[in-house]
Structure prediction request, 374 residues.
Amino acid sequence: MFKNFFDKFKNKDNEEIEEKEELEKQEEEKSGLEEEDLNKSSEKETEKIVEETVEVVEEVNQEEIVTEEKESFFNRLKKGLTKTRDNISNKIDTILASYQKVDEELFEEIEDTLISADVGVDSTMQIIDELTERVKLERIKDPKEVKSLLISIMKQKLAEAVPNNDLDTSKSPTIILVVGVNGVGKTTTIGKMAAKLKQQDKKVMLVAADTFRAAAIEQLTEWANRAEVDIISHKEGADPASVVFDGIASAKSKNVDVLICDTAGRLHNKKNLMNELNKIHRVVEREYPEAKKETLLVVDGTTGQNAIFQAKEFKEVADLTGVVITKLDGTAKGGVVFPLEIELGLPVKLIGVGEQIDNLMEFDSDNFVDAIFN
Ligand SMILES: Nc1nc2c(ncn2[C@@H]2O[C@H](COP(=O)(O)OP(=O)(O)OP(=O)(O)O)[C@@H](O)[C@H]2O)c(=O)[nH]1
Ligand SMILES: [Mg+2]
Prediction:
Protein backbone atom coordinates (compact mmCIF):
# COMPACT_ATOMS: atom_id res chain seq x y z
CA MET A 1 0.00 0.00 0.00
CA PHE A 2 2.86 2.33 1.09
CA LYS A 3 4.71 1.33 -1.88
CA ASN A 4 1.73 2.16 -3.86
CA PHE A 5 1.47 5.47 -2.13
CA PHE A 6 5.18 6.14 -2.57
CA ASP A 7 5.02 5.06 -6.15
CA LYS A 8 2.14 7.33 -6.60
CA PHE A 9 4.11 10.16 -5.03
CA LYS A 10 7.14 9.31 -7.07
CA ASN A 11 4.98 9.20 -10.10
CA LYS A 12 3.50 12.54 -9.19
CA ASP A 13 7.01 13.95 -8.73
CA ASN A 14 7.98 12.51 -12.00
CA GLU A 15 4.88 13.88 -13.59
CA GLU A 16 5.65 17.33 -12.19
CA ILE A 17 9.21 17.18 -13.46
CA GLU A 18 8.06 15.99 -16.81
CA GLU A 19 5.40 18.70 -16.90
CA LYS A 20 8.03 21.31 -15.98
CA GLU A 21 10.39 20.02 -18.63
CA GLU A 22 7.58 20.01 -21.16
CA LEU A 23 6.71 23.59 -20.24
CA GLU A 24 10.35 24.67 -20.53
CA LYS A 25 10.60 22.93 -23.86
CA GLN A 26 7.47 24.64 -25.10
CA GLU A 27 8.80 27.96 -23.81
CA GLU A 28 12.07 27.43 -25.65
CA GLU A 29 10.31 26.44 -28.85
CA LYS A 30 8.02 29.44 -28.57
CA SER A 31 10.86 31.89 -28.10
CA GLY A 32 12.72 30.17 -30.93
CA LEU A 33 9.68 30.57 -33.12
CA GLU A 34 9.28 34.16 -32.08
CA GLU A 35 12.92 34.79 -32.93
CA GLU A 36 12.42 33.06 -36.23
CA ASP A 37 9.27 35.09 -36.80
CA LEU A 38 11.12 38.24 -35.94
CA ASN A 39 13.88 37.30 -38.35
CA LYS A 40 11.30 36.43 -40.96
CA SER A 41 9.37 39.62 -40.51
CA SER A 42 12.51 41.71 -40.57
CA GLU A 43 13.53 39.83 -43.71
CA LYS A 44 10.10 40.57 -45.13
CA GLU A 45 10.40 44.20 -44.07
CA THR A 46 13.77 44.44 -45.84
CA GLU A 47 12.34 42.74 -48.92
CA LYS A 48 9.42 45.16 -48.86
CA ILE A 49 11.70 48.18 -48.57
CA VAL A 50 13.88 46.86 -51.40
CA GLU A 51 10.78 46.18 -53.49
CA GLU A 52 9.39 49.63 -52.76
CA THR A 53 12.72 51.24 -53.62
CA VAL A 54 12.86 49.28 -56.87
CA GLU A 55 9.27 50.31 -57.58
CA VAL A 56 10.06 53.97 -56.94
CA VAL A 57 13.16 53.75 -59.15
CA GLU A 58 11.11 51.97 -61.82
CA GLU A 59 8.37 54.59 -61.52
CA VAL A 60 10.91 57.38 -61.91
CA ASN A 61 12.44 55.59 -64.93
CA GLN A 62 8.98 55.03 -66.36
CA GLU A 63 8.17 58.71 -65.92
CA GLU A 64 11.42 59.63 -67.64
CA ILE A 65 10.64 57.26 -70.51
CA VAL A 66 7.09 58.60 -70.84
CA THR A 67 8.35 62.20 -70.81
CA GLU A 68 11.06 61.32 -73.34
CA GLU A 69 8.53 59.52 -75.53
CA LYS A 70 6.13 62.43 -75.21
CA GLU A 71 8.84 64.90 -76.10
CA SER A 72 10.04 62.95 -79.08
CA PHE A 73 6.42 62.44 -80.14
CA PHE A 74 5.77 66.17 -79.91
CA ASN A 75 9.01 67.01 -81.71
CA ARG A 76 8.18 64.55 -84.47
CA LEU A 77 4.72 66.08 -84.74
CA LYS A 78 6.20 69.58 -84.89
CA LYS A 79 8.65 68.49 -87.56
CA GLY A 80 5.82 66.93 -89.59
CA LEU A 81 3.80 70.12 -89.35
CA THR A 82 6.61 72.57 -90.16
CA LYS A 83 4.96 73.94 -93.31
CA THR A 84 1.57 74.40 -91.69
CA ARG A 85 3.23 76.09 -88.70
CA ASP A 86 5.12 78.47 -90.99
CA ASN A 87 1.86 79.26 -92.75
CA ILE A 88 -0.26 79.88 -89.65
CA SER A 89 1.86 80.73 -86.63
CA ASN A 90 4.57 82.82 -88.28
CA LYS A 91 2.01 84.86 -90.19
CA ILE A 92 -0.06 85.50 -87.08
CA ASP A 93 3.08 86.55 -85.15
CA THR A 94 3.90 89.07 -87.87
CA ILE A 95 0.34 90.42 -87.88
CA LEU A 96 0.16 90.76 -84.09
CA ALA A 97 3.56 92.49 -83.97
CA SER A 98 2.39 95.09 -86.47
CA TYR A 99 -0.64 96.17 -84.41
CA GLN A 100 -0.69 98.57 -81.47
CA LYS A 101 -4.24 97.86 -80.44
CA VAL A 102 -6.84 95.16 -80.89
CA ASP A 103 -9.36 96.27 -83.50
CA GLU A 104 -11.65 95.04 -86.27
CA GLU A 105 -8.85 95.13 -88.84
CA LEU A 106 -6.68 92.84 -86.74
CA PHE A 107 -9.47 90.26 -86.57
CA GLU A 108 -9.89 90.48 -90.34
CA GLU A 109 -6.21 89.77 -90.91
CA ILE A 110 -6.28 86.76 -88.59
CA GLU A 111 -9.40 85.56 -90.40
CA ASP A 112 -7.65 85.78 -93.80
CA THR A 113 -4.66 83.86 -92.47
CA LEU A 114 -6.81 81.01 -91.15
CA ILE A 115 -8.82 80.78 -94.36
CA SER A 116 -5.66 80.74 -96.48
CA ALA A 117 -4.34 77.86 -94.33
CA ASP A 118 -7.44 75.82 -95.23
CA VAL A 119 -9.12 76.18 -91.86
CA GLY A 120 -12.31 76.66 -93.90
CA VAL A 121 -14.69 79.62 -94.00
CA ASP A 122 -17.26 78.24 -91.59
CA SER A 123 -14.74 77.06 -88.96
CA THR A 124 -12.78 80.32 -89.29
CA MET A 125 -15.95 82.38 -88.71
CA GLN A 126 -16.74 80.37 -85.60
CA ILE A 127 -13.21 80.85 -84.27
CA ILE A 128 -13.13 84.60 -85.03
CA ASP A 129 -16.59 85.21 -83.52
CA GLU A 130 -15.52 83.55 -80.30
CA LEU A 131 -12.22 85.44 -80.33
CA THR A 132 -13.99 88.81 -80.75
CA GLU A 133 -16.37 88.04 -77.93
CA ARG A 134 -13.66 86.84 -75.53
CA VAL A 135 -11.41 89.83 -76.25
CA LYS A 136 -14.32 92.10 -75.30
CA LEU A 137 -15.27 90.06 -72.26
CA GLU A 138 -11.72 89.79 -70.96
CA ARG A 139 -10.97 93.44 -71.88
CA ILE A 140 -7.85 92.51 -73.83
CA LYS A 141 -6.08 95.58 -75.16
CA ASP A 142 -2.63 94.25 -76.05
CA PRO A 143 -2.39 92.39 -79.42
CA LYS A 144 0.33 90.16 -77.87
CA GLU A 145 -2.30 88.60 -75.62
CA VAL A 146 -4.47 87.63 -78.57
CA LYS A 147 -2.30 84.66 -79.64
CA SER A 148 -2.74 82.59 -76.50
CA LEU A 149 -6.47 83.29 -76.56
CA LEU A 150 -6.66 82.21 -80.22
CA ILE A 151 -4.78 78.98 -79.38
CA SER A 152 -7.16 78.15 -76.55
CA ILE A 153 -10.24 78.86 -78.71
CA MET A 154 -8.93 76.66 -81.55
CA LYS A 155 -8.30 73.83 -79.07
CA GLN A 156 -11.73 74.32 -77.52
CA LYS A 157 -13.52 74.28 -80.90
CA LEU A 158 -11.87 71.00 -81.88
CA ALA A 159 -12.54 69.42 -78.50
CA GLU A 160 -16.20 70.47 -78.60
CA ALA A 161 -16.69 69.12 -82.11
CA VAL A 162 -14.94 65.81 -81.41
CA PRO A 163 -14.43 64.88 -77.76
CA ASN A 164 -12.60 61.63 -78.57
CA ASN A 165 -10.15 61.00 -81.41
CA ASP A 166 -8.93 57.56 -80.38
CA LEU A 167 -8.80 54.74 -82.85
CA ASP A 168 -10.04 52.15 -80.40
CA THR A 169 -8.82 48.68 -81.28
CA SER A 170 -9.15 47.30 -77.77
CA LYS A 171 -12.09 45.09 -78.71
CA SER A 172 -11.11 41.86 -80.39
CA PRO A 173 -12.04 41.26 -83.17
CA THR A 174 -12.03 44.65 -84.85
CA ILE A 175 -12.40 45.14 -88.59
CA ILE A 176 -11.15 48.32 -90.23
CA LEU A 177 -12.26 49.24 -93.74
CA VAL A 178 -9.96 51.78 -95.30
CA VAL A 179 -11.59 53.90 -98.00
CA GLY A 180 -10.69 56.96 -100.05
CA VAL A 181 -10.01 58.11 -103.60
CA ASN A 182 -6.92 56.93 -105.47
CA GLY A 183 -3.48 58.02 -104.44
CA VAL A 184 -4.39 59.50 -101.06
CA GLY A 185 -2.24 57.02 -99.12
CA LYS A 186 -4.62 54.20 -98.13
CA THR A 187 -2.21 51.29 -98.72
CA THR A 188 0.70 53.09 -97.07
CA THR A 189 -1.45 53.98 -94.05
CA ILE A 190 -2.57 50.34 -93.70
CA GLY A 191 1.06 49.20 -93.70
CA LYS A 192 1.98 51.73 -91.01
CA MET A 193 -1.11 50.89 -88.98
CA ALA A 194 -0.37 47.15 -89.13
CA ALA A 195 3.17 47.74 -87.86
CA LYS A 196 1.89 49.91 -85.01
CA LEU A 197 -0.72 47.36 -83.91
CA LYS A 198 1.76 44.50 -84.21
CA GLN A 199 4.05 46.39 -81.83
CA GLN A 200 1.15 46.43 -79.37
CA ASP A 201 1.10 42.61 -79.57
CA LYS A 202 -2.09 42.48 -81.63
CA LYS A 203 -2.63 39.75 -84.17
CA VAL A 204 -3.16 41.66 -87.40
CA MET A 205 -4.27 40.49 -90.85
CA LEU A 206 -4.57 42.48 -94.06
CA VAL A 207 -7.12 41.99 -96.84
CA ALA A 208 -6.24 43.09 -100.37
CA ALA A 209 -9.71 44.17 -101.47
CA ASP A 210 -8.33 46.63 -104.02
CA THR A 211 -8.39 44.18 -106.90
CA PHE A 212 -8.80 46.88 -109.51
CA ARG A 213 -5.10 47.51 -109.89
CA ALA A 214 -2.62 44.57 -110.04
CA ALA A 215 0.13 46.59 -108.41
CA ALA A 216 -2.15 47.34 -105.45
CA ILE A 217 -2.06 43.69 -104.32
CA GLU A 218 1.73 43.55 -104.64
CA GLN A 219 2.09 46.83 -102.79
CA LEU A 220 -0.05 45.65 -99.86
CA THR A 221 1.82 42.31 -99.79
CA GLU A 222 5.06 44.22 -99.50
CA TRP A 223 3.68 46.21 -96.55
CA ALA A 224 2.43 42.97 -94.92
CA ASN A 225 5.97 41.57 -95.17
CA ARG A 226 7.47 44.74 -93.79
CA ALA A 227 5.05 44.79 -90.84
CA GLU A 228 5.34 40.97 -90.50
CA VAL A 229 1.60 40.31 -90.58
CA ASP A 230 -0.58 37.91 -92.62
CA ILE A 231 -2.40 38.91 -95.78
CA ILE A 232 -5.34 37.47 -97.72
CA SER A 233 -5.42 38.22 -101.43
CA HIS A 234 -6.96 37.01 -104.68
CA LYS A 235 -6.01 37.70 -108.27
CA GLU A 236 -6.38 41.04 -110.00
CA GLY A 237 -9.99 41.64 -111.07
CA ALA A 238 -11.49 39.34 -108.41
CA ASP A 239 -14.65 40.41 -106.60
CA PRO A 240 -13.47 42.59 -103.67
CA ALA A 241 -16.38 41.48 -101.46
CA SER A 242 -15.34 37.85 -101.86
CA VAL A 243 -11.77 38.69 -100.82
CA VAL A 244 -13.21 40.31 -97.71
CA PHE A 245 -15.38 37.20 -97.15
CA ASP A 246 -12.23 35.00 -97.24
CA GLY A 247 -10.38 37.45 -95.04
CA ILE A 248 -13.08 37.24 -92.38
CA ALA A 249 -13.13 33.41 -92.50
CA SER A 250 -9.36 33.29 -92.11
CA ALA A 251 -9.37 35.92 -89.35
CA LYS A 252 -11.91 33.85 -87.43
CA SER A 253 -9.93 30.62 -87.74
CA LYS A 254 -6.67 32.31 -86.76
CA ASN A 255 -8.15 34.40 -83.94
CA VAL A 256 -7.06 37.65 -85.48
CA ASP A 257 -7.53 40.79 -83.33
CA VAL A 258 -7.55 43.39 -86.08
CA LEU A 259 -8.47 42.77 -89.71
CA ILE A 260 -7.63 45.69 -92.03
CA CYS A 261 -9.13 45.87 -95.53
CA ASP A 262 -7.61 47.88 -98.34
CA THR A 263 -10.15 49.05 -100.93
CA ALA A 264 -9.94 50.49 -104.41
CA GLY A 265 -9.81 54.23 -104.82
CA ARG A 266 -10.16 54.15 -108.56
CA LEU A 267 -13.03 52.53 -110.42
CA HIS A 268 -14.77 53.23 -113.72
CA ASN A 269 -17.04 55.72 -112.03
CA LYS A 270 -18.21 56.95 -108.67
CA LYS A 271 -21.37 54.84 -108.71
CA ASN A 272 -19.34 51.65 -109.16
CA LEU A 273 -17.05 52.59 -106.33
CA MET A 274 -19.93 53.27 -103.97
CA ASN A 275 -21.74 50.07 -104.97
CA GLU A 276 -18.62 48.10 -104.29
CA LEU A 277 -18.20 49.65 -100.84
CA ASN A 278 -21.82 48.84 -100.03
CA LYS A 279 -21.32 45.23 -101.07
CA ILE A 280 -18.25 44.96 -98.81
CA HIS A 281 -20.22 46.50 -95.96
CA ARG A 282 -23.00 43.96 -96.36
CA VAL A 283 -20.53 41.06 -96.28
CA VAL A 284 -18.99 42.43 -93.09
CA GLU A 285 -22.40 42.89 -91.43
CA ARG A 286 -23.46 39.38 -92.35
CA GLU A 287 -20.23 37.45 -91.77
CA TYR A 288 -18.61 39.31 -88.90
CA PRO A 289 -21.38 40.67 -86.64
CA GLU A 290 -19.24 40.10 -83.56
CA ALA A 291 -16.50 42.44 -84.82
CA LYS A 292 -16.22 46.11 -83.94
CA LYS A 293 -16.37 48.02 -87.21
CA GLU A 294 -14.33 51.04 -88.18
CA THR A 295 -14.54 52.73 -91.56
CA LEU A 296 -11.65 55.10 -91.97
CA LEU A 297 -11.56 57.64 -94.76
CA VAL A 298 -8.08 58.53 -95.91
CA VAL A 299 -7.61 62.02 -97.35
CA ASP A 300 -4.49 63.63 -98.75
CA GLY A 301 -3.65 66.72 -96.68
CA THR A 302 -1.93 68.42 -99.59
CA THR A 303 -5.24 68.72 -101.45
CA GLY A 304 -6.76 71.08 -98.89
CA GLN A 305 -10.40 71.86 -99.67
CA ASN A 306 -10.59 68.89 -102.02
CA ALA A 307 -10.18 66.64 -98.98
CA ILE A 308 -13.28 68.26 -97.46
CA PHE A 309 -15.21 67.66 -100.64
CA GLN A 310 -14.22 63.97 -100.63
CA ALA A 311 -15.15 63.63 -96.97
CA LYS A 312 -18.62 65.04 -97.70
CA GLU A 313 -19.14 62.60 -100.57
CA PHE A 314 -17.96 59.51 -98.66
CA LYS A 315 -19.90 60.51 -95.57
CA GLU A 316 -23.10 60.26 -97.60
CA VAL A 317 -22.52 56.68 -98.69
CA ALA A 318 -20.35 55.11 -96.01
CA ASP A 319 -20.76 55.04 -92.27
CA LEU A 320 -17.44 56.77 -91.59
CA THR A 321 -16.07 56.43 -88.07
CA GLY A 322 -12.98 58.53 -88.63
CA VAL A 323 -10.48 60.16 -90.94
CA VAL A 324 -6.77 59.76 -91.58
CA ILE A 325 -5.02 62.81 -93.02
CA THR A 326 -1.86 61.86 -94.88
CA LYS A 327 1.10 63.80 -96.26
CA LEU A 328 0.89 66.54 -93.63
CA ASP A 329 4.69 66.64 -93.81
CA GLY A 330 4.54 68.05 -97.31
CA THR A 331 1.88 70.69 -96.95
CA ALA A 332 0.97 74.03 -95.45
CA LYS A 333 -2.68 73.02 -95.59
CA GLY A 334 -2.86 71.26 -92.21
CA GLY A 335 -5.76 73.58 -91.40
CA VAL A 336 -8.10 70.99 -93.04
CA VAL A 337 -8.34 69.33 -89.65
CA PHE A 338 -10.70 72.13 -88.55
CA PRO A 339 -13.47 71.84 -91.17
CA LEU A 340 -13.26 68.03 -91.05
CA GLU A 341 -14.01 68.08 -87.35
CA ILE A 342 -15.96 71.31 -86.82
CA GLU A 343 -18.10 71.33 -89.99
CA LEU A 344 -18.42 67.61 -90.70
CA GLY A 345 -18.06 66.25 -87.18
CA LEU A 346 -15.61 63.58 -88.37
CA PRO A 347 -12.96 62.55 -85.86
CA VAL A 348 -9.43 62.79 -87.23
CA LYS A 349 -7.91 59.63 -85.76
CA LEU A 350 -4.49 59.38 -87.38
CA ILE A 351 -2.15 61.62 -89.33
CA GLY A 352 0.56 60.68 -91.77
CA VAL A 353 3.73 62.72 -91.55
CA GLY A 354 6.01 60.88 -93.98
CA GLU A 355 6.46 57.78 -96.11
CA GLN A 356 8.28 55.65 -93.55
CA ILE A 357 6.68 52.86 -91.55
CA ASP A 358 6.75 54.87 -88.31
CA ASN A 359 5.42 58.10 -89.84
CA LEU A 360 1.87 57.60 -88.61
CA MET A 361 0.74 59.40 -85.48
CA GLU A 362 -2.31 59.32 -83.29
CA PHE A 363 -4.17 62.60 -83.54
CA ASP A 364 -4.62 64.69 -80.42
CA SER A 365 -6.25 68.08 -80.94
CA ASP A 366 -4.39 69.90 -78.13
CA ASN A 367 -1.03 68.59 -79.34
CA PHE A 368 -1.92 69.45 -82.90
CA VAL A 369 -2.77 73.07 -82.11
CA ASP A 370 0.34 73.39 -79.91
CA ALA A 371 2.48 71.97 -82.70
CA ILE A 372 1.22 74.46 -85.27
CA PHE A 373 1.68 77.42 -82.92
CA ASN A 374 4.81 76.75 -80.87
N1 LIG B 1 5.11 62.40 -97.72
C1 LIG B 1 4.17 61.50 -97.50
N2 LIG B 1 3.83 60.63 -98.46
C2 LIG B 1 2.88 59.73 -98.22
C3 LIG B 1 2.22 59.67 -96.95
N3 LIG B 1 1.31 58.67 -97.01
C4 LIG B 1 1.40 58.13 -98.25
N4 LIG B 1 2.33 58.77 -98.98
C5 LIG B 1 2.73 58.50 -100.38
O1 LIG B 1 1.61 58.70 -101.24
C6 LIG B 1 1.69 57.85 -102.37
C7 LIG B 1 0.38 57.11 -102.58
O2 LIG B 1 0.20 56.23 -101.49
P1 LIG B 1 -0.67 54.90 -101.57
O3 LIG B 1 -0.62 54.31 -100.23
O4 LIG B 1 -0.24 54.06 -102.70
O5 LIG B 1 -2.09 55.50 -101.88
P2 LIG B 1 -3.46 54.71 -102.16
O6 LIG B 1 -4.54 55.53 -101.59
O7 LIG B 1 -3.35 53.33 -101.68
O8 LIG B 1 -3.53 54.76 -103.74
P3 LIG B 1 -4.40 53.82 -104.73
O9 LIG B 1 -4.13 52.42 -104.34
O10 LIG B 1 -3.90 54.17 -106.10
O11 LIG B 1 -5.82 54.19 -104.57
C8 LIG B 1 2.87 56.93 -102.12
O12 LIG B 1 3.98 57.38 -102.84
C9 LIG B 1 3.13 57.09 -100.62
O13 LIG B 1 4.47 56.87 -100.28
C10 LIG B 1 2.61 60.62 -95.94
O14 LIG B 1 2.09 60.66 -94.81
N5 LIG B 1 3.59 61.50 -96.26
MG1 LIG C 1 -3.64 51.51 -102.61
Observations:
- The two ends are 112 Å apart (CA to CA).
- Confidence is low (pLDDT under 50) at residues 1-14, 30-42.
- Residues 2-80 form the longest helix (79 residues).
- The pocket of guanosine-5'-triphosphate (ligand 1) is lined by residues 180, 182-188, 210, 216, 265-266, 326-327, 329-330, 352-355, 359 (CB under 6 Å).
